[in-house]
Amino acid sequence: MTYTFDPLVPRPIDRPTEVPLGPLTEEQLIALDEAKIFAGPPDPADRPAWRERLREWREDARRRHGYTGAAYERPGAAWAARCRTVAQVWLWDELLYDVERGRFTPEKFLADARERFAGLDAVVLWHAYPVIGLDDRNQWDFYRDVPGLTELVRQFHDAGLGVFVDYNPWDVGTRRAGDDLGELASLVADLGADGVFLDTLKKAEPEFVEALERAKPGIVLEGESKLPVERIEDHASSWAQFFADSPVPGVLRAHWYERRHMQHHVRRWHRDHTEELQSAWLNGVGVMVWEVVFGVWVGWSRRDAATVRRMVTVQRAAEDLLLHGEWTPLAELAPGAEEAGVYGSRWDLGDQTLWTVVNRSDQDYTGPVAPGTPLLGEGVPARGIAAFLRAASEPAWVRELPDLPHDPDARFPHRLAVPRTPARSSGTPDPDAVVVPAGPYVLTVRYRARETGMYQGAPYVDEWKPLPPRLHDARTLQRDGVLANPVAVAATEVTNAEFTEFLERTGYRPAQPHRFLAWNTDPDAPVTYVDLDDARAYCAWRGGRLPTEDEWQLAGETGRLRRGEPAVWNWTESEHSDGRTRFVMLKGGCDYRAEGSDWYVEGGRRDPDYSVKLLLPGLGLARSATVGFRCAWDLPEVTA
């Protein structure tokens, strides 16, 4: 396949914008509004003029757009200007949710963040994608149907964190309730959320902002990409996502425009976060810590985690300097520093001067840097950061700084998704079950490329922004294995009537009853609103187990598996976990299909070779109107 772009190279719209060094024309001033990052000039002699042009642009842009800064005076929004580390976390991340105990574990999640990242200032509680579209539940259902969610938000608040909820404007094909604006405003008020993450959006429309402000005065809105200059007025935060810096570090346009506007650098698929961290350090902004991207492990190296830890500890201690001090980007450093790849920003407030410094080279720098006391140790480590402070008297916050060593280990911390091994069954199969013979097999599996990936590893590594045809396109993979013994796979799915008999005979009741058998009426239809454990319990009662995804496909390719009405996806014994995400492979497809967005789980009936990777929610939310199951039985080996 030939692509029209190189996914490993920033697109033109991601690249920094050159700043003319002469007096700016009206056309040039307006053009600079479109920058993500103002490129730093390579020649130090050009930098005074460059800084003057930046100040000229800021003054002109504020005048043109009638900037008042009133949104940043709201008491409820003041926290956003100091919100430097935000974690995007799926509600069912195994650090946040304990599968065995069936409860949220924010204490475990926060302890990990404190140890590796010096803590967090906020979380985005991600909820629906990439599961939404499996059935007709809408994005609001994936929040409102979660037992204990309000308590989870309270626990984060008690720990001093802000809480963002997520808004998916593309959710137009699931069940309709109220209008999006009313639903979101109600959710914000009911949960006590502090902010809204605007998924796929750069900004919210003014009427949207006004309604949310009425629901929660001081609400913080954060879009996913470059925020238009005129909307810095009413959006206190924004992602600096897909922002490529210049070789000589540049200046973030939105933060230069309004120092209280907090940006969070994020490159979700990158394994080396040096450039975004160094840009955040030089600009006095924050980062998005995102280690599980829609079920895919993209964990941060020890080096990058240590850089976050060092960076935010100083940023929090010196926040007045960073917010209110005179900022000099690309400040002059000691002779020889820049030649070694060392650059810095200078922040002056009263009798205090802080230098935030980065080393872009692969060699430690031990020479002179700035005329101040080092706050993060002597020198500037390779690909690392440093800080220097000059003050008439040492501030109290300096004495309170902990030891913050650099860690040079930049290796990617791989995780493997480990499959659950089913116990061998010994029961008698249905008379019409499809027998899959023992021995080796090779399968072709068809699937749609999604951000979830499939079995192991990330679907995109070091890519800037995966775009079609690399996103949502049709793919294949090969699976092979060996069946140690023949396996019989039920020709039909378990029906409501059969599952009811199981309940009556065994008294089975799930440990987590939420959504169990909700709205099942037709006795002959496939049983739905059952999760993996419910299905496993039934199969065990029948002396069997769930078929693996490979067994299901091998049986299905004989053409002898039958579908109930309505057609539903089938659970398979394919549960995997990498310690952060649980997932399973669904087979068979279903009659339901959510229309209107490629972000939905695909619906429709599917051939046996088609698979969908489904991330597993907890607390009963995995029970769906469109997922049922069939049983399988291990058969004795055939001997001559």
Please sum up the structure shown.
This is Sulfatase-modifying factor enzyme-like domain-containing protein. InterPro entries: CTDL_fold, Sulfatase_Mod_Factor_Kinase, SUMF_dom, SUMF_sf. The protein is α/β, with parallel strands linked by helices.
Describe the fold and architecture.
It contains 15 helices and 32 strands. The chain starts with 25 loop residues before the first helix and ends in a 6-residue tail after the last strand. The strands form ten sheets. An eight-stranded parallel barrel has the order 2-5-6-7-8-9-11-12. It is an alpha/beta fold and 640 residues long.
Task: Output mean pLDDT.
Answer: 97
Overall helicity: 10-25%
Unreliable segments (pLDDT under 50, ≥5 consecutive)? none
Distance between the termini: 49 Å
Question: What Rg is obtained from the alpha carbons, in whole angstroms?
Answer: 28 Å
What is the β-strand count?
32
General shape: elongated
Structural class, by secondary structure, is alpha/beta
Organism: Amycolatopsis deserti
Protein name: Sulfatase-modifying factor enzyme-like domain-containing protein
InterPro entries: CTDL_fold, Sulfatase_Mod_Factor_Kinase, SUMF_dom, SUMF_sf
Domain Sulfatase-modifying factor enzyme-like: 482-575
What layout of secondary structure does this protein have?
Blueprint: H1 26-32, E1 37-38, H2 47-64, E2 85-90, E3 97-98, E4 103-104, H3 106-117, E5 122-126, H4 141-144, H5 149-158, E6 162-167, H6 180-191, E7 195-198, H7 206-215, E8 220-223, E9 237-241, E10 251-252, H8 253-257, E11 262-266, H9 274-283, E12 286-289, E13 292-293, E14 296-297, H10 302-317, H11 319-324, E15 326-328, E16 342-349, E17 352-359, E18 373-374, E19 385-391, H12 396-399, E20 418-419, E21 434-436, E22 439-448, E23 474-483, E24 487-489, H13 496-506, H14 532-541, H15 549-556, E25 569-570, E26 576-577, E27 582-587, E28 589-590, E29 604-605, E30 611-615, E31 627-628, E32 632-634
Parallel strand pairs: 2-5, 2-12, 5-6, 6-7, 7-8, 8-9, 9-11, 11-12, 25-31
Antiparallel strand pairs: 1-10, 3-4, 13-14, 15-16, 16-17, 17-19, 18-19, 20-26, 21-24, 22-23, 24-32, 26-27, 27-30, 28-29
Helix pairs in contact: 6-7
